[in-house]
Amino acid sequence: MRTPVGCAALAALLWMAAGCGGNSTAGNAVAAGGTAASAGAPAEMKLAAVSAYDAGPRAAEAPADEMGAQRGSQLFKDKGCSACHTFGKKLTGPDLAGVTHRRTAAWIENQILHPEVMVKTDPISHQLFSTFMLQMPNQGLTPEQARDVIAFFRHQDHEAGEAHGKEAGK
Ligand code: HEC
Question: Is residue 147 in contact with ligand 1, taking CB distance under 6 Å?
């Protein structure tokens, strides 16, 4: 017979599977499993270089925003980003080609809005800092402006993907 219990068990499984990717705690598993005894204590899944902001779909997966991308392109120059960053090679800052495939939108937004906090608290940002030996300055963007810049990055990565596809004869 099809019981709601089956659904609950499935839901609990999915919950736990999802939990393994993030900072799952024994507490979560117990709550989802229903009984403290059967849930047991899953091995602690502490992944040192995992950023709390970098969980979920990559920034590239959001729909395109051409108007935002245009504003973002201008902001990228006006706000001084282009002094340290470009697409396709490293300047004093990381190469931003493919950044929307590497990171989530939330991570990029935080890096743009609070680079001085990210470098101290975020493992990815900290790692970049150790590589480049330079702290990205806070350029004083608003959250809306940061999202436009991300739309621009997404546009760049999309164009690059199309060009690549053509080369490969697609
Ligand atoms: C003075 C040079 C400098 C300027 C100006 C600058 N950045 Fe950066 N940026 C860096 C450095 C260095 C890093 C890596 C170290 C760190 O996180 O501080 C970085 C990291 C980043 C990253 C992460 C890259 C990756 O591979 O994940 C993004 C995104 C980024 N910057 C965007 C911007 C944007 C947008 C602006 C303009 C608003 C900007 N940066 C202005 C130097 C700069």
Answer: no
